[in-house]
Specification:
The protein has 448 residues and is an alpha/beta fold. 24% of the residues lie in helices and 23% in strands. It is built from nine helices and 21 strands. The strands form six sheets. Strands 1, 2, 5, 6, 7, 8 and 19 form a seven-stranded mixed sheet that branches. Strands 10-17-11-12-13 form a five-stranded parallel sheet, covered by helices on one side. The chain has a three-stranded antiparallel sheet with strand order 14-15-16, with no helix packed on it. The protein is globular.
Length: 448
């Protein structure tokens, strides 16, 4: 096939903007990274340039050659979002989390700077902006998850006021740090929504950093730190939940379960919560600082898509990551319906399995490598302490190190703050890091 192929119209298919992720709201047009014009067909087409998309494009380059792989991603900037907990707590600079997307696309792989507007897996093509159609032999969907601040009355316009921030958006993460610095006296409230979220530990990580900062600055005695969560537990894995509850008790933090933020009155510094266990009843909290974790959901382009389940998540086999209906379609990361926590660590483990799955499918063989649901959440509990939670589909600890990881450790903090970013940029995104399973095996075998 020639470098420049015929381009077909997709106007007959529904359009939709899927990209609501932080840092990716820039206007985009069909564009490739100055290598050659976009073609109408690629052997492997990757949708999304986040952790899952970039890592899989690197792996697919080694499988089929760079010239046969393309990545569709509209954003000029790629963010290492796990660092934003520390940015919101003043321990890291936002700039340290950002790199140009073009610098991360594997050499020779085509970057199509556009948004996906529709998927047609029955005919093996996707539609992009400007009625462009691109066909594929194999499709990898890595579109991430969308943030929905607008589902909270008073947001996102409320972020124009002081005292309120959110570590989940590039536009608001630095406002968290300013709100913490400006704290004087009153309630510091941290929320967890009534939806799936990415990095489910992050809403409370910033709470522990706020506690540490207020103690350091002598303001803790004037602060009521409150965690209003829609959940009925502090954490989904009992071993780590028990440890967190002890920390919460020691830090004198108030936890209100089954509380969902539905409105922010930023001009009055009021937050309105619905009581999920008492339908129709609400509660108003005055705040001096408010950290919002927004409701989240699947990208708009996936809702009612043939590749998605009834809730809008890409419908894949939980062990192989192959689509349940379309054998040449695969999913990875936050956009899938895999029943595990949506984290970068999960993406790493999934990428290794998916690489093996696709390689066998390309040879007309059945996938044999199985994803066990591994995910990890480094629970930052202070400026120098982390509980490294690692677990599987069954909510059972799946720890890398032969120690009790439910204990706060300074070594784990430095791994979170300093080592993991290096691993992300230099190994995961280059397709060389498939999670810590080999390290875990080696660590535990050494003790036998």
């Amino acid at each position: 096939m020639s470098a420049v192929g015929a381009v077909f119209s997709c106007s007959c298919l529904r359009s939709g903007l899927w990209l609501l992720k932080p840092g990716m709201q820039q206007m985009s047009s069909l564009h490739t990274a100055a290598r050659c014009a976009v073609r109408d067909y690629y052997e492997v087409l990757v949708l999304g340039g986040g952790a899952g998309g970039i890592s899989m494009s690197a792996r697919m380059k080694r499988r089929v050659g760079a010239e046969n792989v393309a990545v569709v991603e509209p954003s000029k900037t790629h963010y290492y979002q796990p660092l934003w907990t520390l940015v919101g707590g003043g321990a890291k600079q936002l700039a340290a989390s950002a790199r140009p997307t073009e610098s991360l696309i594997p050499s020779g792989v085509e970057w199509i700077k556009s948004q996906v507007t529709a998927l047609n897996p029955d005919k093996n093509y996707v539609c992009l902006e400007n009625d462009i159609k691109v066909s594929y032999k194999y499709l990898i969907i890595a579109l991430g998850i969308s943030l929905h601040y607008e589902k909270i009355k008073g947001l996102p316009e409320g972020f124009k006021h002081p005292k309120i921030g959110s570590n989940y958006s590039v536009q608001t993460v630095e406002k968290t740090w300013r709100a913490l610095q400006d704290f004087k006296e009153g309630n510091a409230i941290f929320t967890f929504p009534n939806t799936p979220v990415k990095c489910a530990g992050a809403p409370q990580k910033i709470m522990y950093l706020a506690d540490a900062y207020l103690r350091k600055t002598g303001k803790r005695s004037k602060a009521n730190i409150i965690f209003n969560t829609s959940l009925g537990v502090i954490f989904g894995v009992k071993k780590y939940a028990d440890a967190l509850l002890e920390i919460i008790k020691d830090k004198n933090i108030v936890v209100n379960y089954k509380r969902n933020l539905i409105e922010v009155r930023a001009d009055k510094q009021e937050a309105v919560f619905e009581k999920l266990d008492i339908p129709g009843e609400t509660e108003i909290f005055q705040y001096e600082m408010l950290h919002v974790t927004p409701p989240m959901g699947p990208p708009a382009v996936l809702i009612d898509s043939p590749v998605s389940d009834a809730s809008g998540w890409v419908d894949v086999d939980k062990e192989t990551l192959q689509h349940k209906k379309y054998p040449n379609v695969f999913g990875i990361g936050d956009c899938t319906n895999l029943p595990t926590s949506k984290t970068a660590a999960a993406v790493a483990a999934q990428s290794g399995v998916l690489d093996k799955t696709i390689s066998l499918v390309m040879k007309n063989k059945l996938p044999v490598k199985k994803y066990d649901g591994y995910t990890s959440c480094p629970l930052v509990t202070a400026y120098n302490k982390v509980i490294l939670a690692e677990f599987d589909y069954n909510g059972q600890p799946l720890e890398t190190f032969p120690i009790d990881q439910s204990k706060e450790r300074t070594t784990m903090y430095h791994m979170k703050a300093d080592m993991m970013p290096l691993l992300y940029w230099n190994a995961l995104l280059k397709g060389y890091w498939g999670g810590p399973a080999p390290v875990r095996k080696m660590m535990h075998l050494s003790l036998k």
